[in-house]
Design goal:
heterodimer; A: Beta-Lactamase; Helix Hairpins; Heat Shock Protein 90; 3 domains; five-stranded antiparallel beta sheet; five-stranded mixed beta sheet; 18% strand; B: alpha/beta; Rossmann fold; nine-stranded mixed beta sheet; two-stranded antiparallel sheet; 6 helices; 11 strands; 28% helix
Amino acid sequence: MASTYRSSIQRKITFVILTASFVSIALTCACFVAYEFLTFTQRMAETLSANAQLVGANTTAALSFDNKRDAQDNLRALAALPSVRIAAVYDKSGNLFATYARTSREAPIPRTAAQDGIKFFSDRMILFQPIMLDGSRIGTMFIESGYGPIYSRFTTYGFIVILVMLGSLAVAYLFARRIQRKISGPILDLADTARSVSESRNYSIRAKVDSDDEIGNLAAAFNEMLEQIHSLHEDLEQRVIQRTAELEMANKELEAFSYSVSHDLRAPLRHLGGFAELLREKCNDQQDPNIVRYTGIISDSAKKMAKLIDELLEFSRMGRSEMKTQVVELDDLVAEVVGEAKSGIGERKISWNIRPLAKTMGDYAMLKLVFQNLISNAIKYTGKADDAAIEIGLVPEPNRIVCYVKDNGAGFDMRFIDKLFGVFQRLHRLDEFEGIGIGLANVRRIVERHGGKVWAEGEVGKGATFYVSLPLTN
Amino acid sequence: MWVSPSRTFGAENPTKEENKYKLEAACLFNFLHFIDWPQNAFAAPNSPFCIGVVGENPFDGILEQIVAGESIDGRTIEVRQITKVEDAKRCNIIFFPETQRDRCSAFLDALGGTTVITVSEFDQFTSLGGGINFYLENDKLRFEINVAAMQASQVQVSSKLLRLARVYTKQGKEN
């Protein structure tokens, strides 16, 4: 990645410098060549005109005394000029008087004189110029010349231009390489620094500042920014550590508090219950039946409170205690729980339907608590049904184990399903069904610690079904 | 056919004699272009050139026509009839027609050391000390220049003119 942007910025700088120098050299050369061409043609035209003047002046006597041979001899002097192809002298009336042709293959010589002046063609230029004698015109000089010298000269110019171009482009290239090291080097350093900062999250890295130009300013500003980020980051981390410590402290205090409260409440409660029992035994022979009733209420309340405290302690333990994960045979576990439950219901008739279950991964004691809660709930809420039935089984699902515990008891209103698994949330009045409303909260807590979910379906008077999803064994 | 480069003539079928005088008239005029006279040849800076014709004028007005309206170096040109030697001294060029061959010795003697150029049209004129002499060569009019006479007259003859001419020296004819 570094190499792509590295090469692209270097290529851009090289491209810019080479293009700029190429364009300026090309323009300079074009101007130079154009200027040379113009001045050279002008000079050639002047030279041609001067030669015409010279040769023409030499033919004045020949024209005046009608000596064509002498005029011819004069024209022959043009042989000294290689670019002159044909030439002629016309008399005062414009008729041909004397001619010159460099070779026998030259273009035909005009029969009569044309208008004075020089004309440029692609391959030649022609000149008609008056021959004057003492202020009056006695004839016309004609010369046609090629551009030979111009072409050979411009071929040379072409070579020079190409050499100059190559030379300057080479120099420009070397220059570009030097300069791009100065320009792109610091930028690339800066980019490297930025990348290593973001990769290593080490905010103490600093960019090099070795120039006082815009790039130097950029690097300095970047360093300043890093400084700020660094201090902000450190500040933030410090605060997180502090807050976490505070929270942990508060949490520990709270747990210690609730534990000690629950624990310390049990001792006086035991005394209360024990002495209430003693009091009732002592008062059995008393005539006043109220005494027996009152002491009975005290004793029951103490028991209820002891149970409440036990469950609170259990709930707080569930949140803290470590999980001992192992393979759990749900069939065995459920059989054990149901066996215990059956012995606790005394005279009640319940029809049990326990279907084959599966293996799962989890903490045996915790999972036992889950099923204890669900089954005792089912027993509790079928207490008023005529023929209580409880069914335990599996819902077939591919990626997890879903167990259900179904009863035909009091059921619940689906509108209040949100309250079902909350702590101290009850859907029934206490005098209908006893309990403190912590059992399902515990169930949810345990199942969620196993990575599962709990949910329920129910209808008032028609029973409820509780579902528990648990992980498959790997 | 001869066509004068500086003057065209409108004569139809001229006789050989007439034609010769036309050409000679043109030449007399053109000599003025190629010969430089010293300042003392003229009475004043703007004095005209003078072409004198000795005796009877054979040009039949052609010479006058040629020079009419012309000017060279700011000088106009006049043609004079010369009868006496004294008159000839004021001219730049004097022409002896062949008919005046007998009188030329007297004129040449008198004009020795002056700036007057003598021109004629018969053999031996240059050997007598004359300046320029017309002759025919292959039916074309040519002229012979006596360089010694030119030098004696203190005039500068253009090399262009000399190149066209047959040059006469005392040792013999050249060119």
